[in-house]
């Protein structure tokens, strides 16, 4: 059980990885129950809003996406430097087989903040239901799955989280920047949204490659910092993500010409008629 608080761990210098793992282990069950409560809350709000007008919360939405964009950009910068330093000094396989310097010092702090941010990111869905936007299974499912995966594997010291954290930070840096621009009513081509979805799918495919190589290394006698149960969780989660995001990509950008492109063209025609 950790005696240190979140702020004490986040503000400590140097960063104490063992204290962070102990803290994460201590809040695994609270985080799980938060994720369950989150499901009831978002569907409760959705039901409450059913016969009400969408809330005009553009300023809070802009600020929300702005802080997540800035946070993700900073996290991507720190973890990119750390991961490729690890690859250069220790080798590619070592970067996802051994929990090394990536989890120490400044990058270690950002891996901890990444894990904790998955609780904060549940707030994304509150904006969706209050604005009466479509709530997809993919959206709330991946929030719940990722939050609980992060809590379980951070406490376990899972080595291949180096790549998962780096990939997620980097994709989110682009994604939340796009969301911020959209919230500011800055028109961005549908091709940008398509590219972001493609990047999301790509990160899951890269993660599959890492997971399969880790499995090969372990099967051939190389000891890796991983645990069978959470490895299985991760693999099944990543498979489900590829399927769900792939289906979303197909329905949004390919099937029937793509719903998002159709909306973009309709918006352009409406703007042209207004002029």
From TrEMBL:
This is Elongation of very long chain fatty acids protein. GO terms for molecular function: fatty acid elongase activity. The lineage of its organism: Eukaryota, Metazoa, Ecdysozoa, Nematoda, Chromadorea. Pfam families: ELO. It is found in: Membrane. Keywords: Fatty acid biosynthesis, Fatty acid metabolism, Lipid biosynthesis, Lipid metabolism, Membrane, Transferase, Transmembrane, Transmembrane helix. Pathway: Lipid metabolism; fatty acid biosynthesis. It catalyses: a very-long-chain acyl-CoA + malonyl-CoA + H(+) = a very-long-chain 3-oxoacyl-CoA + CO2 + CoA. Belongs to the ELO family. It is a multi-pass membrane protein. The chain crosses the membrane at residues 22-45, 66-87, 107-130, 137-157, 163-184, 196-218, 230-250. GO terms for biological process: fatty acid elongation, monounsaturated fatty acid; fatty acid elongation, polyunsaturated fatty acid; fatty acid elongation, saturated fatty acid; sphingolipid biosynthetic process; very long-chain fatty acid biosynthetic process. It is an enzyme of class 2 (transferase). Its EC number is 2.3.1.199.
């Amino acid at each position: 059980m950790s005696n240190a608080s979140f702020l004490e761990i986040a503000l400590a210098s140097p960063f104490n990885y063992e204290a962070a793992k102990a803290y994460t282990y201590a809040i695994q069950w609270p985080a799980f129950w938060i994720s369950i409560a989150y499901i009831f809350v978002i569907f409760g709000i959705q039901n409450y809003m059913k016969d009400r007008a969408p809330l005009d919360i553009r300023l809070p939405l802009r600020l929300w996406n702005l802080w997540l964009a800035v946070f993700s950009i900073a996290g991507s910068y720190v973890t990119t430097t750390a991961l490729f330093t690890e690859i250069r000094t220790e080798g590619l396989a070592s970067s996802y087989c051994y929990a090394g310097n990536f989890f120490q010092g400044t990058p270690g702090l950002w891996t901890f903040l990444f894990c904790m941010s998955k609780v904060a990111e549940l707030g994304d869905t509150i904006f969706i239901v209050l604005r009466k936007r479509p709530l997809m299974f993919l959206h709330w499912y991946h929030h719940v799955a990722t939050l609980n995966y992060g809590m379980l594997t951070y406490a376990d010291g899972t080595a291949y989280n180096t790549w998962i954290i780096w990939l997620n930070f980097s994709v989110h840096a682009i994604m939340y920047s796009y969301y911020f621009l959209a919230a500011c009513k800055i028109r961005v081509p549908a091709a940008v949204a398509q590219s972001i979805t493609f990047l999301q799918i790509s990160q899951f495919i890269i993660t599959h490659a890492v997971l399969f190589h880790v499995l090969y290394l372990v099967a051939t006698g190389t000891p890796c910092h991983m645990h069978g149960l959470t490895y299985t969780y991760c693999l099944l989660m990543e498979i489900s993500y590829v399927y769900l995001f792939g289906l979303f990509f197909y329905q949004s950008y390919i099937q029937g010409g793509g719903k998002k492109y159709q909306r973009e063209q309709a918006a352009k025609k409406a703007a042209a008629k207004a002029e």
